[in-house]
Amino acid sequence: QQETTNFFIRYNQVGYLTGRDKTINITSTVNFLPLDYNIKNSSGVIVKTGTTPNPRFWGDAQEYASIINFSEIDTEGSYTVDVEGKIARFYIGSSVYEDLSIAALKYYYYNRASAAITAQHGGIWSRSSGLPDTQVRVHSSAASSLRPTGTIISAPKGWFDAGDYNKYIVNSGISTYTLLAAFEHYTSYYQSKELNIPESGNNLPDILDEIIWNLDWMLAMQDPNDGGVYHKLTGLNFAGRIMPNRYTATRYVVKKSTSAALNFAAVAAQASRVFANYESEKPGYSIALKDAAKGAYNWAKANPTVYFTNPSGVLTGEYGDGNVTDEFQWAASELFITTGEAQYKSDINLNAINNGVPSWQSVGSLALFSMNFHSSSISNDVDINTAKSKLLATANIIRTKVNNSPMAIGMSGSDYVWGSNGVAANQMLYLLRAYEISSDETYLKAAYKGMDYLLGRNGTGFSFVSGFGDKTPINPHHRISFADGISTPVPGMLVGGPQPGQQDKCSYSSNASAKSFSDTWCSYSTNEVTINWNAPLAYVINALQMYQNQ
Ligand code: G3I
Ligand code: 9MR
Questions:
Q1: Are residues 219 and 289 part of one domain?
Q2: Is-contact 254 231, C-beta < 8 A?
Q3: Whose CA is nearest to atom 7 of ligand 1?
Q4: Is residue 482 lining ligand 2, measured as CB closer than 6 Å?
Q5: Residue 131 sits in the same domain as residue 74
Q6: Tens of pLDDT along 128-153?
Q7: In the beta sheet, which residues pair with residue 11?
Q8: Which atom number of ligand 1 is nearest to the Cα of residue 163?
Q9: Which end of the chain has the lower number of beta carbons within 10 A, N or C?
Q10: 416 Cβ closer than 6 Å to some ligand 2 atom
Q11: Domain assignment present for 130
Q12: Mind listing the pLDDT tens digit for each residue in 84-94?
């Protein structure tokens, strides 16, 4: 161990909630001797002093990390921590996640295709409409006898996938599921959650209005002639760094795939049961969604191995997946919960469900979340004990990781993939589901602690959500934010996060998996945004603030 002046203070830059565990990390590339620190309140009164507890080696960052626990400080206010002359300011409060809970959802409004963002709803990020998608060509890879190559179809609306302007069914699947699940799981909270979007004030909760924007697009991606679903709606290549209204390239629907059909079927089935309660506000919507879900599922059963790869000449995102077992299980589960029909029940095989932390490519756990949530209505037909123990098994692993980590975070090793921040957010979602089905508070505690990671207590010192924190991404790989001429990016966007792949060949200041991150346009492998990473952020930050309010 040695003395050092070369260390970082890693802390939650948005704030710590009253009554919850509170930790700060001190990290350094050397195994450092204890450092003196004090914490002062806003009047300059010292409320805690100490020396940093013994650091432990943190392999993912190639650093040594010490954990300062200051949970006993619980008075709302602004504080400073001073570690041998280095100072960070942080907040403690009962509503520190309130603004972010709105912004994480508002992200979807800012990223609507076929919509102008008005000053009333978008403030300085107002912009013209673009990508109407009313004249979309059927690509040769998607041609059928009733819709030959070049047939024009209309598939407007939806959200831009990410930093690019394309629309992909596969990651729309998990994204829309996650937002619908937030509403299903915390209905009364979302009934009064105001987002200041154009539909605010109508008879639907704002979150459902936002979800409808994407569901309407998804529905248009189904070929009514056979129930199959196009994998994506895209240009042949990625657009330049232009605003949506400057986009002029031809748009195509590309090749139907099994994973698209199943993602579509799962979400449409889930949405059908949610909108069944809103028949007078959205007449016929629930039935239309159910029929669409059944049609897509039938197509997938008849075409079970149509794995998507980009046809030649199409260079945009692939979202490829050579294993759709989990997609089948997820779709069958959602269809069974919604319809109660035997054919879906007989397709459910709990043993085949992969209970890993969900991602666009691994959706088995989404079925587990839904089955456990709807356990009372399906318990005569589905082995709920197995569904429950599979869910808790993964939550136990995540909780153990948080509790044993030298940083008190859930992220380690192979969690650092392209979109690692989506992994972190989905870990917390997992913990919240485990808490709900077990009432075991230790899952909830781990989720609160885990949120610090995304908001600054990590290997990079960034709070990964644009506009929220002291050091946040200012150059995300997000075309609108690049091209809009506004110095600050669209707020509320969770960037991809550190991972060592460096597929974009940009320059990075570290190769360590927890530090390989660059806040540059160039770094699309760590600094892009997506609907499928923001969705678990929105789910979790809202749930954490909601439990706090109770
Ligand atoms: O499937 C393999 C797995 O078998 C292997 O063990 C593992 C080891 O790294 O890699 C897995 O493949 C990874 C794949 O995602 C599936 O997880 C690739 O390494 C990884 O590079 C790939 O990253 C995806 C990336 O596109 C490149 O294809 C991201 O998950 C995905 O979020 C991202 O999505 C892009 C869209 O294509 C275009 N729009 C933006 C969006 C976000 O950047
Ligand atoms: O902008 C694209 C981003 O949305 C994708 O995630 C990424 C990987 O598919 O590709 C980006 O586009 C890059 C292209 O792949 C290579 N040339 C540079 C493009 C970004 O400027």
A1: yes
A2: yes
A3: 417
A4: no
A5: no
A6: 999 999 999 999 999 999 999 999 99
A7: none
A8: 40
A9: C
A10: no
A11: yes
A12: 999 999 999 99
Ligand 2 centre from 315 Cα, in Å? 9
Shared domain check, 161 and 255: yes
Q: Which ligand is nearest to the CA of 495?
A: 1
The preferred substitution site among 417, 499, 502, 533 for testing ligand 1, maximizing ligand atoms within 8 Å of CB, is 417
Please tell me the distance between residue 108's alpha carbon and the centre of ligand 1 in angstroms.
22
Euclidean distance between CA atoms 512 and 63, whole angstroms: 9
Give the whole-angstrom CA distance, residue 111 versus residue 172: 13
For the domain that residue 326 is a member of, what is the CATH number? 1.50.10.10
| Digit-coded pLDDT (tens) for 158-213 | 999 999 999 999 999 999 999 999 999 999 999 999 999 999 999 999 999 999 99
- The verdict on 408 and 454 lying in the same domain is yes
Tell me if 498 sits within 8 A of 528, measured CB to CB. no
CA–CA separation, 162 vs 529, rounded Å? 5
Structural domains of the chain, count: 2
Q: Are residues 202 and 73 in the same domain?
A: no
495: in domain: no
- For residues 435-442, give the mean pLDDT: 98
**Ligand 1 atom nearest 161 alpha carbon:** 39
362 lines ligand 1 (CB under 6 A): no
Residues 235, 375, single domain; the answer is: yes
CA 120 – CA 295 distance, rounded (Å): 40
Annotated active-site positions, please?
164, 477, 519, 528
Confidence at residue 481, expressed as pLDDT on a 0 to 100 scale: 98
| Residue 304 Cα to chain centre, angstroms | 27
* The pLDDT of residue 417: 98
Question: The CATH number of the domain where 67 resides is what?
Answer: 2.60.40.10
CB 497 within 8 A of CB 420: yes
Tell me the pLDDT band of 450, cut-offs 50, 70 and 90.
very high
DSSP string computed for 373-392: HTHHHHTTTS-HHHHHHHHH
Residue-number span of the structural domain to which 62 is assigned: 8-93
Q: For residue 186, what pLDDT is reported?
A: 98
Q: Which atom of ligand 1 is nearest to the CA of 477?
A: 43
Q: What band does 519 get if pLDDT is binned at 50, 70 and 90?
A: very high
What's the pLDDT tens digit per position in 338-396?
A: 999 999 999 999 999 999 999 999 999 999 999 999 999 999 999 999 999 999 999 99
pLDDT digits (tens, 9 = 90+) for 277-334: 999 999 999 999 999 999 999 999 999 999 999 999 999 999 999 999 999 999 999 9
Ligand (nearest to CA of 496): 1
Domain boundary among 69, 93, 117: 93
In terms of C-beta density within 10 A (0-12 exposed, 13-18 middle, 19 or more buried), how is residue 109 classed?
Answer: buried
Determine the residue of 521, 524, 529 to mutate for testing ligand 2's pocket, defined as the one with the most ligand atoms within 8 A of the Cβ atom. 524
Which of these three, 93, 124, 143, is where a domain ends? Answer: 93
- Predicted ipTM? 0.96
| Same domain for 326 and 187 | yes
- Quote the strand ranges of 361-434, DSSP E: none
Whether 506 is in a domain gets the answer no
Residue 427 lies in a domain: yes
Give the pLDDT confidence score for residue 54 in this predicted structure: 97
CA 364 – CA 149 distance, rounded (Å): 35
519 lines ligand 2 (CB under 6 A): no
